[in-house]
Amino acid sequence: MKLIKKFLVMQLSLLMAICLSACSSGGGSSAEDPTAKTVKIGVLVSDTTSAEALSFRSYYENYIKSVYNVDFMYSDELKDAAAEQSAIDNFIANNCQAIISFASADRPAQIEKCETEGIYYAVATGTLTDEQYEQFKSYKYYVGAIGPDLAIEYQAGYDMAKFYLDQGYTKFGMFTGASVYFTEMHIYRAAGMIAAMCEAGNGDYEGAKGMDIVGKIMSEGGNVNTGKIGSVELNGVVAGYDFDDAWFGKLAAVANDPNVEVLLAVGSGQTAFAGFKPEGKMLGDIDCYTADSVGLMKAGTLNYLAGKFSASIGPIFAATLSAVYGKPIRTADGNAFALSQGYWIATDAETAEKYFEVDSSTTAPAYTKEKLDTLIGASYDDFAKFVSAYSFEDIQK
Amino acid sequence: MEKGKKILSAAALPVIVLAVCLLITSVNGITLFDSQLSWITFTRAAVNVLLVTYALSINLNSGRFDFSIGSTALLSSVISAMIATKYNLSPVLMLMISVVTGGLLGLLSGFVYVTVKLPPIIVSLAMALFYEGMAFTLTGGHGVSFASNAALMEFGTIPNFLIIAAIAAVMMIAVFDHTKFGYEYKALVSGQKVAVNTGIREVPNALICYLIAGLLMGAQGFISATSNGSITMSLNFGSISPMFMAFLPMFVGGFIGRFINDKFGYLLGAVCSALISLVYVRMNAASSTQQIVSALLMVSFLIYLNNEGKLKHLLKRS
Fold first, then answer.
1. DSSP strand E in chain A: where?
2. Which end of chain B, N or C, is more open, meaning fewer C-beta atoms within 10 Å of its C-beta?
3. Are strands A98-101 and A142-147 parallel, antiparallel or unpaired?
4. β pairing state of A142-147 and A337-340
């Protein structure tokens, strides 16, 4: 009997030891492996209906979420700074560990709030101004920003206008979108277009050339004026997003103006001009790749498209996740990064279709998990090198 | 008042508006109607405003503020455009689908209103959100684009716009001025309690009102969509704004309606509104200028209407 008791005690002790060891090794593993726990990320958005916003969301929801242990929580369409603050409060209440922001009503306030609350914050498809960067670069919870900076926006407008100027076109019409609401992105794109006209026409825009045109447009309340720019003519300009009869009438008037050969849009050109444009006139737009834009290129309605690609928001996601995992990517002097990324440009339907195919893929997008994994815990130099190689060809390599 | 004098009084305001518009443009060295495009712009704006004004006035005159008319136009145009582009239908068929869909959506709004018995403002806001959400979901948020579909884009001609306007005006006059429903509607507008006590059933009357408003907004959605070849999505009440373009012509129409049939009054109000729109187009007025001028015009007109008696009294004394 004693022997049996001893045997049972030994068996139980052994079992207990095995259980404790298993528990301890299991607990240790979950604590050490940050990928085991779902990371909740809040996404601040100021636009929920544009093709660009939808394609960004689709990349996160249909691809990133399926390959990473993350969950995204989206804000409503944010129109002002107060709404942004309220959305951040909501994210915090829902235990979000990081925020990726597409909203820019008051970025400094967003960064300050996230720093105070101890929640990681990153800027997608945009950048901070130099002054803002200097102010916030050392913040512990500020991850960084990736997006077309204003110089790239200017260049995008310049390249598009130059594309047509090089072909000998000299009479232009423009849609300047939100320039009248002082949206810098649109002002810089418009300024780039006019700068190209100044160069080709050997003239100036109301006394301004190059980057000075930005200041000129700003001083005119975001309005671009028609007129001669040397030998080039800017014969029609429409701004704003009124969507009323007068707005559509103005767009139709510019699109049908016999003194306009080329229509240039800082964005939404397909909505603004495509329906009114007579055959034979050229249309260039800065937007994103959608089935509709590819269709318009095939039909010859749209001839030039500089588009953001939806997976361009992959690296900022990877950097944010890396920070949550305790491996923040910082510059050599320990600051948050500020990196720029540009557009994919298509001037024919075949190229546009090729870009769209990759861009809209939910299984093999431009930035796959395999590529993004190399960024988690990467050095700043490797990360910056990866982000800067954004052309379609570079990414395909 | 004599018939001739009534017609002259009714025509006075549109003539004055036209004269002012011509004066403003000529002073600036611009011709108001310089090309066929100006006429198309003017006609399209007039028909758009007319349809929204009719649709808004039907329920507003009965004390029902319907915020869902814009979203009815949005969703009906989305459904009709998706079907038309998928099956390569003609613009006339697309118009018919849009009108029928608009009617059904209007009827649904009315059904919800008479069923839940909440204030119409609340119900219409809820329906606006619902229809916006439906349109967004149906298109995956991308809207519908058919700018390269030549057949659908060729619909936007002056005769086509005029035919739609004529059908809408004839339908409105026939239904509201020459049917039992129309007389009951007027009785309910004048005094609902008395009308109900006389045996008029307000629920079927309200449902028909919503149905007709929906039909009109279906047509308006079609015109908007085929004008620029794309339908952009709206969320969070973004579809409400088209409703506001109908206020000035509604007030103007109400004023002119003293002299002639109020449906013609709304038509002339829409013409005035379209003339002002054309001035904005021809002068390439900034959006901010447009908003300020439009607001000033509406407020001035309301001030005039509220103080008309005093003004007449002052004029008589002087």
1. 39-45, 70-77, 98-101, 120-124, 142-147, 171-175, 227-229, 232-238, 262-265, 282-288, 304-308, 337-340, 344-346
2. C
3. unpaired
4. parallel
Partners of B148 on chain A (C-beta within 8 Å) are 274, 295-296, 298-299, 301
Largest CA distance in chain A: 112
Task: Write out pLDDT tens, residues B70-85.
Answer: 999 999 999 999 999 9
The pair phi, psi for residue A302, each rounded to 5°, is -110, 135
- pTM exceeding 0.90: no
CB A80 within 8 A of CB A107: no
Q: Tell me, what's the pLDDT at A18?
A: 52
Token representation of residue A55:
């394609």
Q: Confidence class of residue A25 from pLDDT cuts 50, 70 and 90?
A: very low
Beta bridge partners, B239, equal none
- Per-residue confidence (pLDDT) for residue B254, from 0 to 100: 86
CB contact (8 A) between residue B277 and residue A245:
yes
Rounded CA-CA distance B19/B12 in Å is 10
Q: Supply A141's token pair.
A: 């919870």
Distance between CA atoms of residues B149 and B81, nearest Å: 11
d(CA B140, CA A331): 40
CA distance A356 to chain B (A): 15
Q: Which residue has the tokens 């809209």?
A: A360
Question: Which two three-digit tokens encode residue A223?
Answer: 């309005």
Q: Are A56 and A310 in contact (CB under 8 A)?
A: yes
Prediction ipTM score: 0.88
Say how far residue B163 (Cα) sits from the centre of its chain.
16
How confident is the model at residue B5, as a pLDDT?
85
Closest CA to B48 of A248, A219, A194: A248
Residue A20 has pLDDT above 70, yes or no: no
Chain B residues inside the 8 Å CB shell of A238: 284
Domains located in chain A, CATH noted: 34-149+310-342+365-396 (3.40.50.2300), 151-308 (3.40.50.2300)
> Which has the closest alpha carbon to B261: B185, B190, B178, B200?
B178
State the nearest Cα–Cα gap between B228 and chain A, in angstroms: 4
Which position has the higher pLDDT, B299 or A3? Answer: B299
Instruction: Assign A397 a pLDDT band (cuts: 50, 70, 90).
Output: confident
Q: What is the DSSP string of A158-226?
A: HHHHHHHHTTT--EEEEE-GGGGGT-HHHHHHHHHHHHHHHHHHT--BTTB-TTHHHHHHHHTTT----
pLDDT at A281 over 80: yes
Strand runs (DSSP E) across A117-254, as ranges?
120-124, 142-147, 171-175, 227-229, 232-238
